[in-house]
């Protein structure tokens, strides 16, 4: 994987967001702000990107994004229910139109049989006329810590572009 792909996707995302006058935010755990960096690396990104959240700990997920402590305890940070709550919480906290959340196990430690290293959950929240919709996705990436994190950032942007932002 190449960081150039991340830059190209960020440029494309920025163009689409500007065309549609939409604002995006991120709620990141395992990517540690990589998505926010990729988006804000693009000149003019202040027209569609205002703020982001790096919520590495469960406490931060709860305090900053409103993720339920019960959800965190019952499912663990790397789970579909948690990324769904992270995305919805970020959308509300940032007053954005779109939000992406990422929580995973980048390694080299922390994996289990149920959730091996490379397991990453994604949440995508967006506003509709009926309220907030949230879509979730799950991937299991190969590679070292850096590669898992980069693949997660790339997947997030690709999914925003292909599935979330309406043409």
From TrEMBL:
The CinA C-terminal domain, residue ranges: 8-162
Xref: Pfam families? CinA
What the entry lists under InterPro entries is as follows: CinA-like_C, CinA_C
Against SUPFAM superfamilies, the record matches this protein to: CinA-like
Q: Which domain of life is it from?
A: Bacteria
Q: What is this protein called?
A: CinA C-terminal domain-containing protein
Organism for this UniProt entry: Photorhabdus thracensis
């Amino acid at each position: 994987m190449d960081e150039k792909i991340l830059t190209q996707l960020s440029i494309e995302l920025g163009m689409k967001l500007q065309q549609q006058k939409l604002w995006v935010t991120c709620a990141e755990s395992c990517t540690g702000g990589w998505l926010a960096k990729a988006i804000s690396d693009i000149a003019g990104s202040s027209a569609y990107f205002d703020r982001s959240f790096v919520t590495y700990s469960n406490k931060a997920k709860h305090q900053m994004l409103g993720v339920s402590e019960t959800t965190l305890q019952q499912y663990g940070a790397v789970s579909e229910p948690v990324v769904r709550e992270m995305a919805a919480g970020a959308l509300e906290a940032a007053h954005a139109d779109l939000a992406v959340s990422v929580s995973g196990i980048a390694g080299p430690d922390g994996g289990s049989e149920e959730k091996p290293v490379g397991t990453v959950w994604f949440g995508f929240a967006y506003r509709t006329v009926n309220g907030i919709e949230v879509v979730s996705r799950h991937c299991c990436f190969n590679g070292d810590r850096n590669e898992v994190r980069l693949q997660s950032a790339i997947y997030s942007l690709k999914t925003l572009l292909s599935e979330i932002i309406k043409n």
